[in-house]
Fold:
Amino acid sequence: VLQRLKEKGHDTSAADEELEEFKKNIESARENQEKALEKFREAREKNDKEMLREAHSFLKDAHDNLKEAHKNLKEIVRKIKATEQGSEELEKETEEKAEINQATSS
Structure:
């Protein structure tokens, strides 16, 4: 959607910035999840409650990263809709996805 708006000459810089934040938050969530899984493995092997707490802390951090990414995503949609053609492009994208889903599920 952003690419189509850019091609039509619309300024998408605000949404682009939010998209970069979204990507950072998703990457942080993945990293924290990987750290948590590693700590859980170590805690299980060593039967270490402190490591288990650390693992849980990493999972909470990953969850917080995902909540921030969700906020970013909502803001991206809001900024796209704020452009003159943004709502139309989002609607077109949604219709295309629905058609693809129907075709693959039939």
In short: The chain has four helices and no strands.
